[in-house]
C-alpha cells in the first residue's frame, strides 16, 4: 500500500467504519480507561503526548467537554493499534515524527512542548496546506480527492471520536434513544386505543 492510498483510507475511515460493530466495542473500551493509568497500545510516550496535545488544541474544553475529557486520544490509539495494518501503523509513526520535526525546525521544540500561540500557528499553517476531503456518500469518495495529510486525517479522527462519544452524544447533542424506553404496563387511556402501522 503506498502512502497516498494509506492517507486516503485514513481519511475515509471515519465514515466507512462508523457502523461496524467492532468499532462500538472500541468506544466501550476507551470509556473504561482511567487517564492516570492509561498505557497506550500503539503510541510511544512522545507520540501519545503529541496526539493528546493535538486533539486538545483542535477540540479544547470550553463550556462543553474537550477532546481529552472524552478520551479522544485514547480512542485514536486503540483504533490504530487494533485496526491498522503494519504498513498503516508505520505511516502513522512516520507522520507523527515528521509533524514533530517540522515543529522543531520552525519553533524549536516538539508540538506538545510549544506555547499556545505557537501551537495555533502550527495548526493554522497545517489547515492551509492540508488537502481537504472531497464529496462522499456513506464513507466512499465521489469524484476527485485531494491528498489528505496527517493533520487533516488526525483532525477527522479526533472529531469522529469526540462526536460519537457517549458524553457528547447524551449530554451535549440532542439525544433521542431509539427505540426508546420500554414501558410494559402503560394504561390504554395514556396510549390511545388505535395505532396506525402506516
Description of the structure:
With 198 residues, the chain is an all-alpha fold. Strand 1 and strand 2 form a beta hairpin. Helix 1 runs parallel beside helix 7. The N and C termini lie far apart (49 Å).
Task: Spell out the blueprint of helices and strands.
Layout: H1 3-17, H2 21-31, H3 45-58, H4 72-83, H5 86-107, H6 116-129, E1 136-137, E2 140-141, H7 150-163, H8 166-171, H9 188-191
Q: How would you summarize this macromolecular structure in one to three sentences?
A:
The chain is mostly helical and 198 residues long.
Considering the chains and any ligands shown, give keywords for the structure.
two-stranded antiparallel sheet; 9 helices; mainly alpha; elongated; single chain; 198 residues
